[in-house]
Amino acid sequence: MNDSLKYRAAVAALDEVRAGMTLGLGTGSTVTHYIRELGRRVGEGLEVRAVATSLRSEALAREVGVPIVTFADVASLDLTVDGADEVSPQLDLTKGLGGALVREKVVARASERFVIVVDDSKIVDRLGTRSPIPVEVVPFASDVVSRRLRAIGGEPRLRRVDGEPFVSDNGNHVVDWRVEPIDDPAALERDLKGITGVVDSGLFTNMADRVIVAGASGVRSLERSP
């Protein structure tokens, strides 16, 4: 998705923002446009506050003047806008290639409304088609969890950066689990959560309320069926 379309998608998500809201700020390149534009509107007088899903989104928000709070300050959020790596026809998601999946899920679960911004290449028939499933794990358990995932099926690979294990903002590792397209992502999400050593997975099922999709023909909106 080129940068102008990313910007248009981000602006479309900003239409959901109202004065006085407590927002969740996602992580990723399209959300970066959203945070910058939100900061511009805060500078023009919009009163909001936000919880960030990553240290880098928090740093950007502070840079552009968006007031940051934590869950010590607020119990719930009005709206979260975030990206995704895959979106199914049921609006289930794969997330976490940016490494912020656990904080993203915490923030999403605390939100009254969860809006996703993607380009049309992220739309798939079934999750697992184009992206591995990121699984955040306690470092001590990385090998144990990888063996368990391999036994279930597919190929797990510990994520590395410059040859060293990737470390999340929570101090954990991430195993990228390449699997066949998933028939029942909700059941798999529950199964992964039940593995000792797993903090959470990048499967986000039954969570997104709206998906804003940007493509060559423009921007369209997908809404969850009631």
Describe the structure.
This protein is of the alpha/beta class and 226 residues long. The chain has two domains: 3-125 and 205-216, Rossmann fold, CATH 3.40.50.1360; 133-201, Alpha-Beta Plaits (2-Layer Sandwich). Helices cover 29% and strands 26% of the residues. The protein has helices spanning 3-14, 29-43, 55-64, 101-109, 142-152, 185-193, and strands spanning 22-25, 49-52, 79-82, 86-87, 93-94, 114-119, 133-137, 155-158, 160-161, 164-165, 173-178, 198-201, 203-204, 210-215, 218-223. The strands form four sheets. It has a six-stranded mixed beta sheet with strand order 2-1-3-6-14-15, sandwiched between helices. Strand 9 (160-161) and strand 10 (164-165) form a beta hairpin. Helix 1 (3-14) crosses helix 2 (29-43) and helix 2 packs parallel to helix 3 (55-64). The longest helix is centred in the N-terminal third of the chain and has 15 residues, at 29-43. It is globular.
